[in-house]
Design a protein that fits this description.
Blueprint (H helix, E strand, L loop, with lengths): L2 H16 L12 H7 L1 H11 L3 E5 L1 H9 L12 H19 L7 E6 L15 E5 L3 H8 L31 H19 L3 H6 L12
Helix pairs in contact: 1-7, 2-3, 3-5
């Protein structure tokens, strides 16, 4: 989409590590490994070894996935690695449906400056969450594999990991605050330039007039 959306993605990955206690694999952080293994091999290994695969959906993401603007020829250009990842996830979702697999491993999320309609049809079978509104549900989903042996409070039976997981307080941590700022910056861009995405596709496009109060 744009650099501000990219900042949200990276802040969200850091937040998952810091606040949620997840081990995160993000292509932007592993360029050296990708060069060593090759893009397809690295993606396939990450998807196979991960407990969960989260796809962050957006306006630009859906456009390039469904319109297939990029073509995979030789070395991938910007965005093509992501298209290959979505294709692999979609294939595994179909396999899970046909062979009674576990589609809950695959999660499609979108931030509140996007909408559920920005999730491409190829990911219809994935679990879907709006962030940060549905963050508590996502947190529970990511830790579901530990439910058989919950770390509960002896007196109340409550899971202390869930105690502070609310939409309204995620930004109280350093990583959460960074994520909150990144999301706010993206929202501000959209408010100032409602056709920001179209301007990237058509250089020189005049901005839309802002609505009057």
């Amino acid at each position: 989409d744009c650099q501000k959306h990219l900042a949200v993605v990276q802040c969200f990955a850091a937040f998952l590590q810091d606040f949620c206690g997840c081990e995160v694999g993000l292509d932007l952080w592993e360029q050296l490994e990708i060069c060593k293994e090759g893009q397809a091999a690295w993606l396939s290994r990450q998807i196979m070894e991960s407990h969960y695969v989260i796809v962050i959906c957006s306006k630009g993401m859906k456009f390039f996935v469904e319109k297939k603007q990029h073509k995979h020829r030789g070395r991938c250009r910007d965005g093509e690695l992501f298209l290959l990842a979505v294709s692999m996830v979609a294939q595994r979702l179909r396999q899970a449906r046909l062979h009674a697999g576990n589609p809950s491993r695959f999660i499609a999320v979108y931030f509140d400056y996007s909408c559920e309609g920005d999730i491409p049809g190829a990911l219809d079978l994935a679990c879907k969450y709006k962030l940060m509104d549905h963050f508590p549900q996502l947190h529970s989903h990511l830790h579901a594999r530990d439910v058989s042996q919950p770390d509960t409070d002896a007196d109340t039976g409550a899971d202390p990991r869930q105690a502070n997981v609310r939409k309204s307080n995620y930004f109280h941590t350093r990583s959460g605050r960074s994520l909150y700022i990144a999301i706010s910056n993206m929202k501000h861009l959209i408010e100032l330039e409602p056709n920001w995405f179209e301007k990237q596709l058509i250089p020189g496009l005049l901005p839309l007039p802002l609505p009057l109060p």
